[in-house]
Amino acid sequence: MGKVLVLATRNQGKIEELRKMLAHYDIQVNGLDQYPDCPEVVEDGDTFIANAKKKAETISNHLRLPALADDSGLEVDALEGRPGVFSARFAGPGATDQDNIRKLLESLIDVPLGERNAQFRCVLALAVPGRPTWTCEGSCDGHIILKPEGAGGFGYDPVFYLPLMEKTMAQLSQEEKNAISHRGKAVRIFTGHIHSLLNE
Asked: Do 136 and 182 form a contact (C-beta atoms < 8 A)?
Protein backbone atom coordinates (compact mmCIF):
# COMPACT_ATOMS: atom_id res chain seq x y z
CA MET A 1 0.00 0.00 0.00
CA GLY A 2 1.28 3.48 -0.85
CA LYS A 3 1.11 6.78 0.94
CA VAL A 4 -1.10 7.30 3.98
CA LEU A 5 -3.89 9.87 3.66
CA VAL A 6 -5.82 10.74 6.80
CA LEU A 7 -9.45 11.74 6.44
CA ALA A 8 -9.91 14.48 9.03
CA THR A 9 -13.38 13.37 10.16
CA ARG A 10 -15.07 11.03 12.60
CA ASN A 11 -18.24 10.96 10.48
CA GLN A 12 -18.46 7.32 9.37
CA GLY A 13 -20.72 8.20 6.43
CA LYS A 14 -18.12 10.58 5.02
CA ILE A 15 -15.26 8.15 5.72
CA GLU A 16 -16.98 5.33 3.82
CA GLU A 17 -17.95 7.58 0.89
CA LEU A 18 -14.44 8.96 0.54
CA ARG A 19 -12.81 5.54 0.95
CA LYS A 20 -14.91 4.17 -1.91
CA MET A 21 -14.09 7.14 -4.13
CA LEU A 22 -10.35 6.74 -3.46
CA ALA A 23 -10.30 2.92 -3.66
CA HIS A 24 -8.59 2.83 -7.08
CA TYR A 25 -5.52 4.74 -5.91
CA ASP A 26 -2.41 3.32 -4.24
CA ILE A 27 -3.19 5.16 -1.02
CA GLN A 28 -3.92 3.91 2.49
CA VAL A 29 -6.98 5.90 3.56
CA ASN A 30 -7.41 6.17 7.33
CA GLY A 31 -10.20 7.88 9.26
CA LEU A 32 -9.80 9.64 12.60
CA ASP A 33 -11.32 6.57 14.27
CA GLN A 34 -7.81 5.09 13.85
CA TYR A 35 -6.19 8.02 15.70
CA PRO A 36 -8.06 8.37 19.00
CA ASP A 37 -5.52 10.85 20.41
CA CYS A 38 -6.21 13.46 17.71
CA PRO A 39 -7.65 16.73 19.02
CA GLU A 40 -11.26 17.68 18.45
CA VAL A 41 -11.40 20.54 15.96
CA VAL A 42 -13.92 23.27 16.74
CA GLU A 43 -15.59 24.24 13.47
CA ASP A 44 -15.98 27.94 14.24
CA GLY A 45 -15.31 29.31 10.76
CA ASP A 46 -18.02 31.26 8.96
CA THR A 47 -17.33 29.55 5.61
CA PHE A 48 -16.92 25.97 4.44
CA ILE A 49 -13.38 26.73 3.26
CA ALA A 50 -12.32 28.12 6.64
CA ASN A 51 -13.60 25.04 8.47
CA ALA A 52 -12.12 22.58 5.96
CA LYS A 53 -8.69 24.24 6.13
CA LYS A 54 -8.72 24.36 9.92
CA LYS A 55 -9.59 20.66 10.20
CA ALA A 56 -7.00 19.55 7.62
CA GLU A 57 -4.20 21.70 9.04
CA THR A 58 -4.87 20.76 12.68
CA ILE A 59 -4.85 17.02 11.96
CA SER A 60 -1.88 17.20 9.57
CA ASN A 61 0.17 19.19 12.09
CA HIS A 62 -0.73 16.76 14.89
CA LEU A 63 0.04 13.56 12.96
CA ARG A 64 2.69 14.93 10.57
CA LEU A 65 0.81 13.20 7.76
CA PRO A 66 -1.22 14.44 4.77
CA ALA A 67 -4.77 15.14 5.91
CA LEU A 68 -7.85 15.63 3.75
CA ALA A 69 -10.79 17.45 5.30
CA ASP A 70 -14.24 18.05 3.93
CA ASP A 71 -16.62 20.71 5.09
CA SER A 72 -19.96 20.50 3.44
CA GLY A 73 -23.52 21.44 4.01
CA LEU A 74 -26.90 22.39 2.71
CA GLU A 75 -27.81 25.91 1.59
CA VAL A 76 -31.50 26.65 1.16
CA ASP A 77 -32.37 29.75 -0.86
CA ALA A 78 -35.60 30.47 1.04
CA LEU A 79 -33.62 30.41 4.31
CA GLU A 80 -30.98 32.84 2.97
CA GLY A 81 -28.39 30.08 2.67
CA ARG A 82 -29.02 28.40 5.99
CA PRO A 83 -28.22 25.95 7.50
CA GLY A 84 -24.89 26.34 5.66
CA VAL A 85 -21.89 25.82 7.94
CA PHE A 86 -24.30 24.86 10.73
CA SER A 87 -25.81 21.96 8.73
CA ALA A 88 -24.58 19.23 11.10
CA ARG A 89 -25.84 21.08 14.18
CA PHE A 90 -28.84 22.96 12.76
CA ALA A 91 -31.11 21.60 15.51
CA GLY A 92 -28.49 22.23 18.19
CA PRO A 93 -25.38 20.53 19.64
CA GLY A 94 -25.57 16.74 19.44
CA ALA A 95 -28.46 16.86 16.94
CA THR A 96 -29.13 13.69 14.95
CA ASP A 97 -29.81 13.65 11.22
CA GLN A 98 -33.51 13.20 12.02
CA ASP A 99 -33.45 16.21 14.37
CA ASN A 100 -31.88 18.40 11.69
CA ILE A 101 -34.31 17.24 9.00
CA ARG A 102 -37.25 17.92 11.33
CA LYS A 103 -36.04 21.46 12.02
CA LEU A 104 -35.41 22.10 8.31
CA LEU A 105 -38.91 20.97 7.33
CA GLU A 106 -40.43 23.05 10.15
CA SER A 107 -38.47 26.09 8.94
CA LEU A 108 -39.90 25.62 5.43
CA ILE A 109 -43.47 24.79 6.45
CA ASP A 110 -44.89 27.95 4.83
CA VAL A 111 -42.64 27.81 1.75
CA PRO A 112 -44.31 26.37 -1.40
CA LEU A 113 -42.65 23.37 -3.06
CA GLY A 114 -41.64 25.47 -6.07
CA GLU A 115 -39.67 27.86 -3.87
CA ARG A 116 -37.55 25.33 -2.00
CA ASN A 117 -34.44 25.46 -4.16
CA ALA A 118 -31.29 24.31 -2.38
CA GLN A 119 -27.76 23.20 -3.03
CA PHE A 120 -25.31 20.93 -1.34
CA ARG A 121 -21.78 22.41 -1.25
CA CYS A 122 -18.54 20.66 -0.42
CA VAL A 123 -15.07 22.12 0.10
CA LEU A 124 -12.10 19.77 0.30
CA ALA A 125 -8.85 20.91 1.89
CA LEU A 126 -5.61 18.95 1.72
CA ALA A 127 -2.89 19.81 4.22
CA VAL A 128 0.56 18.30 3.68
CA PRO A 129 3.35 19.09 6.16
CA GLY A 130 5.58 21.85 4.81
CA ARG A 131 3.25 22.88 1.98
CA PRO A 132 0.47 25.42 1.45
CA THR A 133 -3.02 23.96 1.99
CA TRP A 134 -4.82 23.09 -1.26
CA THR A 135 -8.60 23.44 -1.66
CA CYS A 136 -11.33 22.71 -4.19
CA GLU A 137 -15.13 22.83 -4.24
CA GLY A 138 -18.11 20.95 -5.67
CA SER A 139 -21.84 21.64 -5.59
CA CYS A 140 -25.11 19.90 -6.44
CA ASP A 141 -28.48 21.58 -7.04
CA GLY A 142 -31.90 20.28 -6.02
CA HIS A 143 -34.84 21.21 -3.85
CA ILE A 144 -36.29 20.27 -0.48
CA ILE A 145 -39.36 18.05 -0.51
CA LEU A 146 -42.14 17.87 2.09
CA LYS A 147 -41.13 14.63 3.83
CA PRO A 148 -38.17 12.22 3.83
CA GLU A 149 -37.96 9.59 1.09
CA GLY A 150 -35.33 6.86 0.78
CA ALA A 151 -33.16 4.95 3.24
CA GLY A 152 -29.68 5.54 1.84
CA GLY A 153 -27.08 8.22 2.39
CA PHE A 154 -26.94 10.36 5.51
CA GLY A 155 -27.61 13.93 6.65
CA TYR A 156 -30.25 15.73 4.60
CA ASP A 157 -30.16 13.20 1.73
CA PRO A 158 -33.76 11.95 2.32
CA VAL A 159 -35.28 15.42 1.73
CA PHE A 160 -32.94 16.61 -1.05
CA TYR A 161 -34.72 15.93 -4.34
CA LEU A 162 -32.85 15.80 -7.66
CA PRO A 163 -35.26 16.68 -10.52
CA LEU A 164 -33.01 15.18 -13.23
CA MET A 165 -32.87 11.86 -11.37
CA GLU A 166 -36.50 12.04 -10.16
CA LYS A 167 -35.23 10.75 -6.80
CA THR A 168 -33.94 12.04 -3.51
CA MET A 169 -30.25 11.70 -2.75
CA ALA A 170 -31.21 8.95 -0.28
CA GLN A 171 -32.85 6.90 -3.08
CA LEU A 172 -29.69 6.72 -5.18
CA SER A 173 -27.20 3.87 -5.19
CA GLN A 174 -23.76 4.77 -3.86
CA GLU A 175 -22.44 4.79 -7.42
CA GLU A 176 -25.21 7.12 -8.63
CA LYS A 177 -24.67 9.44 -5.68
CA ASN A 178 -20.91 9.62 -6.18
CA ALA A 179 -21.43 10.48 -9.85
CA ILE A 180 -23.52 13.60 -9.19
CA SER A 181 -23.00 14.67 -5.58
CA HIS A 182 -21.17 17.77 -4.38
CA ARG A 183 -18.62 15.55 -2.61
CA GLY A 184 -18.18 13.35 -5.68
CA LYS A 185 -17.48 16.39 -7.86
CA ALA A 186 -14.96 17.79 -5.36
CA VAL A 187 -13.22 14.40 -5.00
CA ARG A 188 -12.87 14.10 -8.79
CA ILE A 189 -11.08 17.47 -8.85
CA PHE A 190 -8.84 16.24 -6.01
CA THR A 191 -8.05 12.91 -7.69
CA GLY A 192 -7.14 14.75 -10.90
CA HIS A 193 -4.21 16.23 -8.95
CA ILE A 194 -3.72 13.45 -6.40
CA HIS A 195 -0.24 12.28 -7.41
CA SER A 196 1.30 15.74 -7.54
CA LEU A 197 -0.42 16.75 -4.31
CA LEU A 198 0.72 13.74 -2.29
CA ASN A 199 4.18 13.16 -3.75
CA GLU A 200 7.02 14.79 -1.88
From this structure: no
